[in-house]
UniProtKB/TrEMBL annotation:
Its EC number is 2.3.1.269. Its main location: membrane. It is a multi-pass membrane protein. Pathway: Protein modification; lipoprotein biosynthesis (N-acyl transfer). The gene is lnt. The chain crosses the membrane at residues 37-53, 60-79, 91-114, 126-146, 166-186, 214-235, 565-586. It comes from Leptospira levettii. It is found in: Cell membrane. This is Apolipoprotein N-acyltransferase.
Length: 590
């Protein structure tokens, strides 16, 4: 009742309006709408609420939760779809789950309001660095399963986005709140006129105050010039870099099913899927070969091509799956990168008897070379909580769709090999139908005449789904990749904006690494992104459908960028220095 009375009051209306400004303006600025002009005004809602409730800590916490819920409702509405459609929860359970996750995973809003209000009271005057410091602290030190930083929204501006080479999204968040707080301070036209008259009178009468005001305005201009100037320089620097090679890459988007609770026949659906993949590849590559074919996460769900005693015990090894992958790579003489399940017993159990409780299952991607041989694999390291594992064993009973995966332990690049450059020498090309009577070994024997000398020509950085949006994790990979391959499955979220948001959050890895990204999805949106963070020809595959897309991927000369070398060093230095200045200033004026 108390909440209802508040919402119907004038104060409640203004508060909800402020929540809405921040949530809607942020959403409009981000993918897929991409209207970046709104981002500069999105923090206004936070500034207004803080000013109206300055020093009232309990109210600021409640308002922070209000921002969290509305922000989640506008930008992450697809979480409700995932909870009801794939989680299987009824609405009366899905709603509290949605609200609870909104509060828990958007703690940055109450933390920001509390810290910002505290520092404003301590400093006692207009000081825009407070806004930058507070948002950096809130984004660094609060939990976020799907980390959407305000800096990611700023990065929709191609020039400003280039600064991510030094600061990732964090530095852009600090820049946004610095500029936005200035705009908020000058939001009243009368205040601007008063400010100009004040400057004129102060310059003639109060030299000390005039000097302070001049320093403030110069600082604002310096920050603008620094970010826009550096972005402009980096954009033109990297735009003129000549690639050392080009690789032809084909992405196959098969729109594979995730589950069969609607009564479909699983065996028939999988057969249709395998036929579809075979025909899509054949149609694209019959006349135009490529160096690399990429299938997405869960492109062929539930199975593995890794033939071992453990995978046979788990009944996830399927010889027809391996046979088809070998057929595709041998038929077209191309590298094939695909996703699968994998399983082992870490360290062995010291016994010939396999105990199921000791088996670990992995979300894995593997490369098959042009000779149809299974080569290096990568097991997903950074797992998604509530999607690929539960924090507590008893929680698995809540949702049958949650996986029970173990994290991988290696962060190795995936080598790939020179493709076959001569036409196929076999008289009969094999297809999916042939796998019913042919083992993987017999497929390789059939294509023996097509086999070529194995010659490594490069390597790429493999990322599975969610991993691409975690900048601190991706930079842990060592070596110099030719490009980044991100395989993902966003089918869990239906025909929503989630797939665009997911890609846009990961797009900054292209700038941080100065490497192209090949994004292969199961049901959309697949896309190629260059080393400047530009989506090539803005060519996205549609959602909830089958599609193929191919481009020439440029191999950019290797260079360890600042962010790869030092990570978030600049952001930590900024917080440390500004925090020290605040401390000294507050102590001197206490």
């Amino acid at each position: 009742m108390k909440l209802a009375r508040f919402l119907m009051s004038r104060e409640g209306f203004i508060s909800v309006l402020c929540y809405t400004v921040t949530a809607v303006f942020s959403f409009l600025s981000f993918a897929p709408l991409n209207l970046p002009i709104f981002v500069w005004f999105a923090p206004f809602g936070l500034f207004i609420i803080e000013k109206r409730n300055r020093g009232e800590w309990k109210k600021l916490i409640y308002h922070g939760f209000g921002f969290a819920i509305l922000f989640y409702l506008v930008s992450f509405h697809w979480v409700y779809h995932m909870t009801t459609v794939f989680g299987g929860f009824d609405w009366y359970l899905a709603v509290p789950i949605f609200i609870g996750s909104a509060i828990l995973l958007n703690f940055k809003f109450p933390v920001y309001l509390l810290l910002f209000s505290f520092l404003v009271k301590k400093v006692g005057k207009f000081f825009p660095l407070i806004a930058s410091f507070s948002i950096l602290f809130a984004e660094f030190f609060t939990p976020q399963v799907f980390p959407w930083y305000f800096g990611n929204v700023v990065a929709e501006n191609q020039i400003l986005a280039q600064n991510a080479e030094y600061t990732s999204a964090y530095g852009l968040s600090a820049f946004l709140f610095f500029v936005s707080y200035y705009l908020f301070y000058l939001k009243n036209p009368k205040k601007i006129l008063h400010f100009l008259f004040l400057v004129r009178s102060v310059v003639t009468k109060h030299q000390k105050i005039a000097k302070q005001m001049l320093v403030g305005q110069v600082s604002f201009l310096v920050v603008l010039v620094l970010f826009f100037g550096n972005g402009f320089y980096l954009f033109h620097k990297w735009e003129n870099i000549k690639p050392i090679a080009e690789r032809e890459v084909l992405i196959v988007q098969p729109n594979a099913p995730l589950e069969f609770r609607d009564g479909r026949n699983p065996a028939e659906e999988i057969r249709n899927l395998m036929t579809r993949i075979d025909r899509m590849v054949e149609s694209e590559l019959k006349e135009k070969p490529v160096d690399l074919v990429v299938l997405p996460e869960s492109g062929v769900p539930f199975f593995t091509t890794h033939d071992s005693e453990v995978t046979r015990t788990m009944r996830i090894y399927w010889h027809q799956f391996e046979s088809l992958m070998a057929i595709i790579s041998l038929r077209h003489g191309a590298n094939l990168f695909f996703n699968e399940l994998d399983a082992d017993i870490p360290g062995g159990n010291g016994s010939s008897r396999i105990v199921r409780s000791e088996i670990r299952t992995y979300n894995s991607s593997v490369l098959m070379n042009p000779n149809g041989e299974r080569k290096n694999s990568y097991q997903k390291v950074f797992l998604l909580i509530f999607g690929e594992y539960m924090p507590f064993e008893w929680m698995y009973a809540l949702s049958g769709q949650t996986g029970q995966f173990a994290p991988g332990t290696k962060l190795d690049l995936i080598p790939y090999y020179e493709r076959r450059k001569t036409p196929s020498k076999v008289t009969k090309e094999l297809h999916w139908e042939d796998t019913f009577g042919m083992s993987p070994d017999s497929v390789r024997e059939h294509y023996r005449a097509n086999q070529i000398e194995e010659n490594t020509i490069g390597s790429f950085l493999p990322l599975i789904c969610y991993e691409v949006i975690i900048s601190e994790f991706v930079r842990k990979f060592e070596g110099d990749p030719d490009f980044i391959v991100n395989v993902t499955n966003d089918k869990w979220y239906g025909n929503s904006v989630e797939s665009y948001q997911h890609h846009t959050l990961g797009r900054l890895r292209a700038i941080e690494f100065r490497k192209w990204i090949v994004r292969s999805t199961n049901s959309g949106t697949s896309v190629f992104t260059d080393h400047l963070g530009r989506n090539i020809e803005n060519d996205f595959t549609p959602i909830e459908t089958t599609a193929t897309i191919r481009k020439k991927v440029s191999v950019i000369p290797g260079e360890m960028t600042f962010y790869r070398l030092y990570g978030n060093l600049l952001s930590y230095l900024f917080m440390g220095i500004v925090g020290l200045v605040f401390f000294v200033y507050a102590k001197r004026n206490s």
